[in-house]
Amino acid sequence: MEQKTNRLYFIDAMRAWAILMMLQGHFVDGLLDPVYRDPGNGLYSLWLYFRGITAPVFFTVSGFIFTYLLIRVPQTGFDNPRIKKGLKRGLQLLFIGYLLRLNLFGLFEGKLYSTFFLVDVLHCIGISIMTIIAVYLLTARLKKWLFPFSLLGITFVLFLFEPLYATWTYSAWPEAIANYLTRNNGSVFTIIPWVGYTALGGFLAVLFKRHLSNKNLYTRAIWLSLILGLSLVYFSSPFFYFFYELSGISLFKDIVTNNYLFIRLGDVLIVFAVFMLLRKSIIRPTLLRIGQNTLSIYIIHFVILYGSFTGLGLYRFFHQSLSPVMAISGAIAFMVVCSYAALTYDKHEATIKGRMHSIRRRVIVPFLRLYYAISQALILLQDRILRLFNTSKG
Question: Which residues span the membrane (predicted)?
């Protein structure tokens, strides 16, 4: 089926899995009582490990999908229609990322709380998309292999030197900009190193696109992903420690001390292998639709859980107060509600947008015209009163 439609359905399924994992992860992490957070508990430890896989998979798949669409069209360079769409998408994600952190009550008081400037998943993916576009345009007229290997180089450099730049505070920079580079102010994600996963997804997309017609593509890709993934998980730390002992360069030892990037990269490749292996059995319409509507699901989950715009979310009322049974059952219900709401919106999107356009045309536009007319009348009235006052004075 993949080869006939040129659509990689296992990627949609993989993205659906990642967004559902993100939903339950955010719910449980935000609402589970700390007394139950015991790393010695096997189930909690397993949940914690899989929660750590979610973001790398989500970033990698996002880079994969965008790059695959970017290179699928015959046009190249600035003639590629995906360039304009990608830039628009990247800016849209940045706008939505900030919008979700906006507090209307504070805005009415003329305040922008510091949380508004924090950087999250949407910001990073938006920047990542624009980074991939920049690399694509810079290499468009050069050798074909330069684009994918430039993306791979970005991943390697960001992951390899993470122990160095992780200590930088950017204290002299404006906080709104520094938040893209450091977590010291409270940002959950930063473009370094997370752009690295998205760039890797772009690299994998190029490989898939170029070998899509090969009948042995999936067999080879599954084995290669498994071997590389398991090697990164179990042997990347010994590998870097060997180079530390050989060269004495402390950077390699620092990587071993907190080797989460390369290990998580191995986890991502293993997840890729699993979904490629199960690609024929996971093609379910609902699952694929969830994977194709992750942005809507993310927005809805942010509003319900964190209370975007009003601050009245589940996080405010049940923050770290639930028992495991309540947290698990609540997480399941949360995933169902967010997914159902997003899929319902997707089903009626054209109608909803049409009604919103009608409301804007019938209500908002006349209101703005009335507001403008009243403002002009008040300005004119003020001018006449001042003239009358000055005349009477004279």
Answer: 7-28, 48-71, 91-108, 114-138, 145-168, 188-208, 220-241, 261-278, 298-318, 324-343, 363-381
